[in-house]
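Lab notebook: predicted structure, single chain.

Context: the supervisor wants predicted structures on file for every construct in the current expression panel, including those that have not yet been purified. This is the next one on the list. No modifications to the sequence; it matches the entry in the shared construct table.
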Amino acid sequence: MSVTLCRRDRGWWGAAAGSSPARQTGRARIKRLRDAIAVLVAAVLLLALGTALRPLFVDDPAAPEVLSATEIGFVQDMAAHHHQALVMVQRLDPGVAPAVQGLARQIEDTQLSEIGTLLGWLRLAGAPAAGAEPMGWMPARTHDHHAAHDPAAAVMPGMATQAELDSLSAARGRTAAVLFLQLMQRHHDGGIAMARVADALLTEGVVKQVAREMITAQTQESGLMTLLLAELAADPPG
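Prediction complete. Output recorded below exactly as produced.
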């Protein structure tokens, strides 16, 4: 009986001894997992600390310039120039010939859309909607040329005076159509002149691209105005 018990004891101890390596392996895995987590936490803390301290030791490069001074000046002035075109459309007698009314609506849609684009660029650049010095971005000789050609446009080429706008508001029928076409064609000529100078001054970029698109679109519209004035037996603006 004692021999059997002894064998049973040896069997029990043998089983316990056989399970010891498995327990040790499990403990080793847990320790390695804890060590890995500790290393990961330390790395995250060091990364966060480095990010926080970086501005104290490293000078970040300046943000890239969104628009140059020339681009900002052109965009500001062209937005103001477009705004007067909208004013002229609003003052046009709605009873004018359908062809003139259709052209007016086309100009309104195009320039209203372009104003939105121009003001969006100024917002991105952190610049005001209007410049402190209109036409200051243009070379002096170019600006002087426009002022000498038309004293009423000394500030911005092609712009109508307040008296001309008041006359447009009071005009009706054929008289309104003729006056609108004459004022708008002169207005387009001024805008084209501004866009051409911007195109010449800028080497690349979206502002240069839009300036070229304005030249093309407004030249086409100006040609249409010449045809409409001929139909109305009126002279184009001098």
